[in-house]
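Project outcomes to date are best conveyed with an example. Our students and postdoctoral researchers have been running inverse folding experiments weekly, and each run begins with a structure described purely in tokens. The record below, which covers 326 residues, was selected by the lab manager from last quarter's runs and is presented without edits.
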């Protein structure tokens, strides 16, 4: 029994704390930043209507949706008004700071500080107009928070290139990756259980409505009424892949199928329901966290960026030299 417990503890330690490369975290960092920059570009012409006191949701009505004590755009605009900065200009300043922080996050430049700024400003904009928040904003906020606390700048970043951050594999990278992987697993399990608790996903009704509701409808899918089994099969497939995610995303033999299924599912949402930002963001999460290898590679960039050498810990390097000498 003691031997079993020791083996289990050793396996758990390797699973959660064995030094790992930050490449999956970097892939998520870059993908998330680019997706949010795309979202910022899409709403650039409506930023005043979304967040000003005279926008779509005005005055006291806007404040009624806000959580007391949380930062908002109008709060910062009020502070800047003491410097004779107009409300509109204050909103543009905050928006520009948000975009700049995302650019720095994508480049991996001052990565930790940039992630903190991106997370805080994203949170501020979410608090400022709760009526426009949806899944993309919420998941972006969650994973910006994870990345802010992780060594996300230790791979594929300007900080590594400039020598500001070490790219050596760490236990923190492994633990951060596991936390985000489990978050995705729990998220899909909860989503699958909620869908399966009703009849609409089993009989295909909800998929039919999603494809034909005017607010989401992108194409004429009315022809599917003659083939009800298609929406029913689509509903079953969604339940199967979401409920099975927590089990089948881990084994190598089934992982690629679940990665392709989740990418296809979310890109389908983007194409057929017009939820482009949400679809792209969700389609990016699983490949970043499960397809990009976290195992340390035997290749690293040399001090002068001109030669490549194998990365090994000191003990392994000593053993290799001894073996070569004999």
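After processing, the design step wrote out the following sequence:
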């Amino acid at each position: 029994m003691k031997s079993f417990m020791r083996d289990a503890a050793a396996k758990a330690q390797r699973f959660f704390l064995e030094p790992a490369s930050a490449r999956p975290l970097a892939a998520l960092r870059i993908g998330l930043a680019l997706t949010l920059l795309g979202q910022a570009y899409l709403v650039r012409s409506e930023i005043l209507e979304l967040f000003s006191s005279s926008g779509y949701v005005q005055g006291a009505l806007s404040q009624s949706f806000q959580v007391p004590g949380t930062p908002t755009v109008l709060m910062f605009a009020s502070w800047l008004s003491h410097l004779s900065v107009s409300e509109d200009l204050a909103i543009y300043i905050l928006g520009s700071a948000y975009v700049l922080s995302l650019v720095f996050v994508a480049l991996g430049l001052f990565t930790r500080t940039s992630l903190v700024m991106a997370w805080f400003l994203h949170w501020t904009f979410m608090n400022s107009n709760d009526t426009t928040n949806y899944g993309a904003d919420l998941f972006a906020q969650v994973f910006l928070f994870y990345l802010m606390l992780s060594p996300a700048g230790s791979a594929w970043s300007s900080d590594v290139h400039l020598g500001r951050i070490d790219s050596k594999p760490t236990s923190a990278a492994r633990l951060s990756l596991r936390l985000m992987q489990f978050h995705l697993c729990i998220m899909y399990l909860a989503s699958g259980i909620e869908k399966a608790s009703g009849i609409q996903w089993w009989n295909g009704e909800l998929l039919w409505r999603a494809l034909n509701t005017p607010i989401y409808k992108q194409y004429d899918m009315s022809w599917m009424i003659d083939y009800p089994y298609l929406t029913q099969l689509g509903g079953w497939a969604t339940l199967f892949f979401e409920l099975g995610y927590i089990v089948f995303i881990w084994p190598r033999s089934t992982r690629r199928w679940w990665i392709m299924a989740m990418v296809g599912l979310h890109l389908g949402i983007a194409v057929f329901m017009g939820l482009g930002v949400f679809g792209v963001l969700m389609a990016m999460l699983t490949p970043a966290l499960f397809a990009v290898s976290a195992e340390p590679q035997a290749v690293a960039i040399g001090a002068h960026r001109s030669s490549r050498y194998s990365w090994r810990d000191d003990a392994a390097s000593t053993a290799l030299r001894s073996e070569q000498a004999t």
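Residues 170-295 form one domain. The two ends are 41 Å apart (CA to CA). The training component of this project remains on track.
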